[in-house]
Amino acid sequence: MTGSDRLNARVGEVTERIAVRSRASRARYLDRIAAAADKAPERARLGCANQAHGFAACGPLDKERLRAGATPSLAIVTAYNDMLSAHQPYERFPELIRQAAREVGATAQVAGGVPAMCDGITQGEAGMELSLFSRDVIALSTAVALSHQTFDAAVFLGICDKIVPGLVIGALAFGHLPAVFLPSGPMTSGLANDEKSRVRQLYAEGKVGRAELLEAEAKSYHGPGTCTFYGTANTNQMMMEVMGLHLPGASFVNPDTPLRDALTRAGVRRALAMTALGNDFTPVGRVLDEKAFVNAVVGLHATGGSTNHTLHLVAMAQAAGLHLTWDDFSDLSEVVPLLARIYPNGQADVNHFQAAGGMGFVIGALLGEGLLHGDAKTVWGTGLDAYVQEPGLDAAGDLVWREGARESGDAAVLRGAAAPFQATGGLKVLAGELGRAVIKTSAVAPERHVIEAPAKIFHSQEELQAAFKAGTLTGDFVAVVRFQGPKAIGMPELHKLMPPLGVLQDRGQTVALVTDGRLSGASGKVPAAIHVTPEALEGGPIARIREGDRVRVDAVAGRLDVLVDAAEWAARAPATADLSASHAGVGRELFAPFRAAVGAADQGASIFFEAAAAPPAP
Q: Where in the sequence is the domain holding 481, given as residue range(s)?
């Protein structure tokens, strides 16, 4: 279960080409953070009034240490709120962190908070059109929190969908500081996922009412912690561990337990041990290099993680001066086996995954095949070999690391590379006459990997739902849901599409989805070409499809095409749509500058990095 002496040739090739195409921008980034590190700790240079403002509210011990300026000062950047189940446990963390810092002679302060919205609450509502942009707001908020320049390191408290990527982008803006991410862990298991799916589908068919649906949902999402399905939030946790920003085995320990508290305190000690004041200076901008991002993409494929990370990882890499592309995702997918089946790619939840061997088993299996960079930097101070361990408490209640699982505890949930669920990763990049898109194949039956059918055109998910309820979605078809891209309406997730399309598929119809919107890690069993770029508002080819055109989604060949006479296709003008209803209300009017500035989906759909998003290929 330890690292292989050889690196898979494809993994090495992709890593090298990222390094080559990023050489100039990465060098500029490293020079910038090196210059910032030369000034640390900045608080020693602050004026007396500046310093006094910074410690005015501290207790006597912390105030004395901050006045002297000789011991490390730790920033806490928190996404706490008590409406999101995943973030509610963070209410206790600041005092745990402060006390752990005091025990090693340091100080810790909450430097600032960042917004944390829940896609599970806003799904299908107007607020969902702010969701993707919240990532960049979180990055900006992180920069504000750290802008006082009084800190030697930072810990980041965040779990869910856009929050972790936003925190990473913000942390990389202060890449001269060490950074540790402290998870809160998943909630305990509730209603079984197959039963939850059954009730949702019955509701979509009108066979049960809202009371039955709400009861099932409440039994599924029932307590503190991350939702237990393998969507973006839990993919974030996998990603932070395989990128070396978590402590080994920290991702999926339940909240409010002695082990979780012990891991939090240990994370604080590691952050403080890595400052420029000691002998183990490890700035986060150097931890997150091309090897770390390749490891993240490999982990994404191996676990069947969220398609949102085809956006987020690209934007995060750009923040580190690195140019990661969808082609890199696609090429890595061809050599990385799918090792996990977690809902919606199976019936198990993340607690079952953890019990079957969890991240230690996955990392060990991938290292054994040479599919991860075992020598990548980590906040643990070692390579990834240490991440095959799992944490526990000894008889005295002290944190210890033990050898991780060498065999899967449940082959229906987790497998080694010798007998994977499928030979390739769960993600495919599509390209063709309709532009570029991604499709998540790990939850789609192989016989549905190629779909060709007439198009049915919609300009919102509500239009499709209305057609379903009216009984007009008959025969085989490809649902084209357009004007959902980042410039159009902020690229919301379109989960209201899945129950009706799933019902039709189960009735024997051949269906697929093509959209310039998002679906995330819960895309499920219906073939879905998502993140189509160029988007419809930009005049992309998706805007030229007409009702009845034959559309072909081919996840085997990696193609996305429309079967229309070439001359007729070239002569067509793109459709238009009135989007004014999505540009005001629920705060959407405030995000007009974001819609105007945002880049394309394959460039990370970010407001920050579009100008540098298309480097020459090596």
A: 427-582
